[in-house]
Amino acid sequence: MTRGYGRDPVGSPACDNVARAPHAFQLVVPSPRVPAVLTMPPSLEARQLTRRFGTFTALDHLTLKVEGTKCVGFLGPNGAGKTTTLKMFTDLIFPTEGEAFVNGISVQQDRRRALSSCGALIETPEIYGSLTPREALQLVGAVRGMSAADVRERTDRVLEQVKMTEWANQKVGRFSKGMKQRINIASTLLSDPDVVLLDEPSTGLDPRGVAEVRSIIRGLKGEGRLIFFSSHILSEVIDVCDEVILINRGKLLFYDTLANVNARLGSGATSVDAEFLRPIADADVARSIASLAGVTAWSRLDERRVTLTIQGGPEKRAEILQGVAGLGLGLVGFHESRSALEDVYLQEITTGES
Ligand SMILES: Nc1ncnc2c1ncn2[C@@H]1O[C@H](COP(=O)(O)OP(=O)(O)O)[C@@H](O)[C@H]1O
Ligand SMILES: [Mg+2]
């Protein structure tokens, strides 16, 4: 269900008390997600946002605007300034310079109104082990000023969303990290926010926990929210996001759609890794493989694997695969090595590092 922006002028943008559909509507429609009526799409904006710690600049004049109901990945290596940025968007720390806006309202000037329709999970908060998810969510609801009835109804919905319904009355202390994180995400969603900020939500989880968190984020898409989540893992961002913001050393490197980034950087060249049964000599690669039409460069991964840069589409790739297989060198594998985005990610974040 998506939201009807601009349909109804009732209420100021992004206030908690904007008009909601009557309760009966929810009994009829199985999904309890009721669109809030905003006059504008949800947004996050940073204007010259800067944070220094002493003489160290953790975030350096970040200016960007993210708008609409979509999922945006805030990508950067450890120490890039992601958490610092999110903390300024949620008023946990004050900017040294600049300003952050949620739904067009300045967080620094009107914290309450700016954050009234924003849910955030920053770093990893601990939930009291002696509480059950239901009790923990009750506390969150009270802090957010929600009515008891609203909390009850939303609790059922968010626990279902994070697939924790059957654990609703068990003590959190016995939960795995992944389960605790799912409860943290449920807390973030409790007040039905238009803007959801998640700071590295899958970091520190085991592979199953990572997969569960990703699947929850994917589930949140298409619900009429702006989801902004930080990550240092490129594949995670590619997996779930529509748009990517890359930062490093406190500076914005780019903000673009995933499709544009791939198109802009692709330029028709792809890399494939070819793996052989036995060690393969440089002379063999140079003489036979590298001379196949369409192979423009090669490099060695290890003694049995080489990376080939290929110019051309899938047909050319099929032709090259056939050519390599036909050389009788014992080809056992042939697969895409890295996406264009991954190349640029590695290139951008290592530039200037010494
Ligand atoms: N309270 C602080 N005092 C001093 N330095 C800090 C503080 N918080 C963050 N930093 C530094 O700012 C940089 C950015 O940190 P952070 O925003 O946490 O990065 P990320 O979340 O991208 O890993 C890091 O070099 C970090 O050490
Ligand atoms: Mg961080």
Read across the widest sheet, the strand sequence of neighbours is 6-7-8-3-9-10
Q: How many β-strand stretches?
A: 14
User: What are the distinct ligands in this entry?
Assistant: adenosine-5'-diphosphate, magnesium ion
Give the low-confidence spans: 1-35
Q: How many H/I helical runs?
A: 12
CATH architecture of the largest domain: 3-Layer(aba) Sandwich
First-residue to last-residue Cα separation: 49 Å
Q: CATH class of the largest domain, please?
A: Alpha Beta
Mean pLDDT: 84
Oligomeric state of this protein: single chain
Largest sheet: 6 strands, mixed
Relative strand content: 25-35%
Shape: elongated
